[in-house]
């Protein structure tokens, strides 16, 4: 199926606050434009090249929006298309404390405040129940990237951090996947939610000034879908996945007051986000080389960013005047993300077991068709099964008799017989060549032209000239084998021969050759 071109969609969600900087941040009336207006610094004088105003174009602005409204705008279409075979990714990006985890996961205490992941699980299972013509299998994985190390949040091993040391990212023809990451079958919405809550309890969080429960890692919750048709018996089926990404927040160390382990975590977070921005810039500029492998995060998101995927970015913004620098940084990232070209296509694969059964069924059907045709044409003796050893021996005998001249023609029955006849011709020719070579070896000594010692011996014996052409009386009576060199033949004048022929007998007649 052909791909569909579509750019990455970008939405901006403002964290609710009583101190929203209305004089600085001005959302457009169309909900697709955000203007940033800063006051000029009079201390810099009249000649001032510093920029004080920006305008960003997005696909939607979510200000004071409910969790349900956010899901309807951001995720609902992505999930529906994933059930049709298209990959999808929803990514939350922004500074620490801006509401990324609240957007992607929500809270477990209040049902209305649940985020994109639990709502996506609900939509997946509801739409599966409504599809009577397809059988869909749902599997779930949960990956955490902490300090550039991969961890499986759904690992069944006693120590989840020890299990992460065995994981690595693999890139093959089918896309990027994490080797060693467990994928769990989820037969129901309840089972899927239990896996989500289990993974959430294993996440690493920390506390600082801006956020008491700050995520200290990047997390990717993936819903794997495999859809088989219940109506068609063909071997083709579709596979897709939905990546729901909760990125760790970018931090300014001076504002968060990070120290010790939290400082080390913040360093890794900012470094990976910096690599992510480099990848986004390279993709937006359509460069030949995109540095996906610079970090575990960008490598794991290779399919989501630069591959076959419907990607949506939610830029979470802390809309207070004190956080305007981080807000500008987030909106710049979002504007670059929006420039990434994307092409989504249904991913189809083939079940080898079902394909084998279908092919065997087709073969049986064609055999019955041929049998019916032969019966109508009064060819009841024709068989389309593979030949037995006795039948092959009979065909070999027919070919041999045909070559000997005792058989006028070979009756042609079907295509399989024709192929076997040619095979027997080939075998007979090959056998005769071996017999001829064996008789020559019994009578003569064959010399390899690359064997210089043997050639030198033959030349010393006078049986070959310098051009390695055989000369001399090989079998004792005549030139039975070999070719005389051109230099060894007598040179005669053709005109002299003709004149001699006029005086005497005609040299071209048999009588003259005998004389």
Keywords, separated by commas or semicolons:
20% strand, alpha+beta, elongated, 515 residues, 10-stranded mixed beta sheet, single chain, 17 helices
Describe, in plain words, how this protein is organized in 3D:
With 515 residues, the chain is an alpha+beta fold. The protein is 39% helix and 20% strand. The protein has 17 helices and 19 strands. The N and C termini lie far apart (87 Å). Mean pLDDT is 81; it is low at 473-481 and 494-515.
Largest sheet: 10 strands, mixed
The count of DSSP E runs of length 2 or more, i.e. the number of strands, is 19
Strand content: 15-25%
The low-confidence parts are 473-481, 494-515
User: What integer value in Å does the Rg equal?
Assistant: 41 Å
């Amino acid at each position: 199926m052909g791909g569909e071109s579509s750019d990455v969609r970008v939405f901006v969600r403002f964290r609710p606050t009583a101190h929203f900087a209305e004089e600085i941040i001005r959302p457009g009336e169309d909900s697709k434009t955000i203007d940033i207006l800063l006051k000029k610094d009079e201390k810099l004088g009249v000649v001032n090249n510093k920029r004080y105003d920006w305008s960003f174009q997005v696909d939607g602005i979510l200000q004071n929006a409910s969790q349900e409204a956010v899901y309807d705008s951001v995720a609902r279409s992505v999930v529906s298309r994933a059930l049709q075979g298209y990959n999808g990714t929803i990514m939350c990006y922004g500074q620490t404390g801006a509401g990324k985890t609240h957007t992607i996961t929500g809270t477990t205490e209040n049902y209305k405040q649940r985020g994109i992941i639990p709502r996506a699980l609900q939509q997946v299972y509801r739409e599966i129940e409504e599809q009577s013509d397809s059988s869909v299998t749902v599997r779930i994985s949960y990956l955490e990237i902490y300090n550039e190390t991969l961890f499986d949040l759904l690992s069944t091993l006693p120590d989840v951090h020890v299990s992460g040391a065995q994981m690595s990212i693999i890139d093959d023809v089918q896309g990027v996947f994490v080797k060693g990451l467990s994928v769990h079958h989820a037969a129901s919405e309840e089972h899927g939610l239990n896996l989500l809550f289990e993974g959430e309890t294993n996440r690493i969080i920390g506390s600082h000034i801006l956020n008491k429960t700050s995520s200290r890692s990047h997390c990717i919750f993936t819903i794997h879908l495999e859809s088989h048709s219940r109506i068609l018996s063909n071997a083709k089926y579709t596979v897709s996945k939905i990546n729901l990404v909760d990125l760790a927040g970018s931090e300014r160390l001076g504002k968060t007051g990070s120290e010790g382990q939290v400082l080390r975590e913040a360093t890794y977070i900012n470094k990976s986000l910096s690599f992510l921005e480099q990848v986004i810039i390279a993709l937006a500029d359509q460069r030949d080389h995109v540095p996906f492998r610079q970090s575990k995060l960008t490598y794991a998101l290779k399919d989501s960013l630069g591959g076959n995927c419907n990607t949506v970015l939610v830029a979470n913004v802390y809309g207070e005047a004190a956080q305007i620098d981080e807000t500008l940084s987030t909106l710049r990232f979002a504007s670059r993300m929006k420039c990434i070209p994307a092409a989504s296509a249904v991913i189809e694969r083939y079940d080898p077991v079902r394909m084998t059964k279908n092919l065997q069924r087709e073969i049986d059907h064609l055999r019955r068709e041929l049998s019916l045709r032969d019966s109508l044409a009064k060819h009841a003796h024709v068989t389309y099964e593979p030949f037995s050893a006795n039948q092959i021996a009979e065909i070999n005998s027919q070919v041999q008799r045909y070559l000997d001249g005792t058989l006028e023609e070979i009756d042609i029955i079907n295509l399989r017989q024709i192929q076997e006849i040619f095979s027997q011709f080939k075998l007979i020719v090959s056998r005769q060549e071996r017999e001829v070579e064996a008789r020559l070896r019994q009578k003569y000594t064959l010399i390899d032209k690359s064997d210089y010692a043997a050639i030198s011996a033959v030349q010393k014996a006078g049986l070959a000239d310098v051009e390695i052409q055989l000369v001399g009386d090989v079998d004792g009576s005549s030139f039975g084998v070999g070719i005389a060199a051109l230099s060894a033949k007598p040179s005669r004048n053709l005109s002299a021969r003709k004149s001699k022929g006029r005086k005497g007998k005609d040299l071209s007649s048999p009588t003259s050759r005998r004389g």
